[in-house]
Amino acid sequence: MSRERVGVVVLDFGRPEDAARAAASARSADRVLIVENGVGPGISSDDRHLRFAENRGFAGGMNAGLKQLLAEGCDRLLLLNSDAVLEPGCLGLLADAFTDPALAAVGPLILREEDGRVESRGVSVDLRFGRVRLEAHGQIPRDEEGVVPVDALSGAVLMLHRRAVERVGLLDEAYFFSFEDIDWCVRAGRAGLALAVVLQARARHAGSRTIGRASSDRFYYSARNHARLLSRHRSPAPIPLSLRIGAVAVLELSHALRQTDARRGQAARAVLAGLRDARLGRFGPRFSAAASAMSLSDFGPAAENESHPRRDEGGAA
Fold first, then answer.
1. CATH no. for 5-205
2. What is the pTM of this model?
3. Of 15, 92, 178, 242, which has the most beta carbons under 10 Å away?
């Protein structure tokens, strides 16, 4: 039996130096492909770069890279943000963790670039009222070993296996930015597959370099996609979807009014705009006139029968 090939997709939007640094940290892979979103017309792709004139968002860009690597025969597929860097040995530890065929995806212990504290030791997801939390956020990293199960993983550094992609599908491009990673993990779990963090594997993540911490778009996408996540996945308890979406509104608004990176009034208005567009079925890039696959009726009871987030330190994902 031939050795499984490891492929890496680095997603970039206007920060080529960061993308090159991320790609260099994964140079031990069999294949590294940088996907460049929004480069404008007239710039062609080459062997190391897949370029798109338009910004296809996180899911659209990563999906394009995944399709290319799958077609080239890669089996263990790392999604890597341009503002993330793998520490030595991380790639091999993640790739070697796929000893169980029921394991869909793995991630490392992700550290914050600015202070070395933990950003994510996996993600906890409560679909009853939409609470999505980064595990161990802000803690001092400990010397730990092993592979631990989690509800979900951060898309900043996320390795998928080919068999899981073939079973679960690609990322949902309607999210455009934020929560598409959580959605994929929920779908994998509901397909009977497992997710895990490899504790010895480490990566560092700067975060919010592309969209910017002060941008109101960050709050818009978080609220809109948080609502989409709950509308697409049934609660384990018989709770009306309207109450679950109401809980999301409280989480998102409270975060917008507590944070200090952006103007709070603008952040709160962006949350309300995101919730409105989720109700109207407007997904994809903000202000797009394109209709999404989800209609108004998807916020009714029928949506909870489908099995088809935002991630921060506090509460709303």
1. 3.90.550.60
2. 0.88
3. 178
